[in-house]
Design brief:
The protein is an alpha+beta fold and 209 residues long. Helices cover 36% and strands 14% of the residues. The protein has 8 helices and 5 strands; from the N terminus they run βααααβαααββαβ. A hairpin with a 7-residue loop joins strand 3 (153-156) and strand 4.
């Protein structure tokens, strides 16, 4: 992994929401909250991270459904202080990335938490929890068509530890379905904090063998 520059958390929050607003699973929740708050979707689709008020709103929006007490509390238990970076990972080094410790991703990857193993199984027609693999193939096709799908978000205890996907599981899997369509380096956001080891979804990510 090559660290490019430090970034503010507001930039990462904006990227997280921008990725989820059109998600089949989470998009309706984001759009419903925006509508209830009388906010235009542009605050998520075209975020201005120089606007402190907008940054504060986006943070509240994200933690409202992804934080403590939210409907999908992925962020619950993450440390308050995380050192965020914009980073790049070589296409041939994506093996180091790991899924969160979560039943669906564990089953899809045969217990390895490796997106590359999951991609191999998807190519073989294997599914997890009776869910279709169509979303992975659709995203892979969009990547191969040159569409910019944003940057997935990773998290780890430190730069030497295997990074775990915080947001972007389907996209990373799609990348590994069609790696020849990727540039030589793939852009990510990555956050580091020693206390990440206590996050409920971190588990014990093993390095690639």
């Amino acid at each position: 992994m090559r660290l490019i520059e430090r970034v503010d958390e507001a930039e990462v929050v904006a990227e997280f929401l921008r990725a989820e607003i059109d998600s089949p699973r989470f998009g309706p929740r984001v759009r419903a909250r925006l509508a209830a708050d009388g906010r235009d979707e542009s605050i998520v689709r075209a975020p201005d991270v120089r606007d402190a008020d907008a940054n504060s709103y986006r943070s509240e929006l994200l933690h409202g459904y992804r934080g403590i007490g939210g409907s999908a509390p992925l962020l619950e238990g993450l440390p308050e202080r995380i050192e965020w970076h914009r980073a790049a990972i070589a296409r041939d080094s994506l093996d180091e990335v790991r899924y969160i410790d979560y039943p669906y991703w564990n089953e899809l990857s045969a217990g390895t938490r490796s997106p590359r193993v999951a991609a191999m199984r998807i190519h073989a027609g294997i599914t997890a929890m009776d869910r279709s693999n169509d979303a992975f193939h659709a995203l892979a096709a969009r990547l191969c068509a040159g569409e910019d799908l944003g940057m997935p978000i990773l998290i780890a205890t430190d730069p030497a530890a295997p990074p775990v996907i915080l947001e972007g599981h389907t996209r990373v899997t799609a990348m590994l379905l069609q790696p020849d369509c990727l540039p030589e380096e793939v852009g990510f956001y990555v956050g580091f904090a020693p206390a990440v080891r206590d996050w409920m979804f971190y588990g014990t990510p093993e390095p690639a063998s």
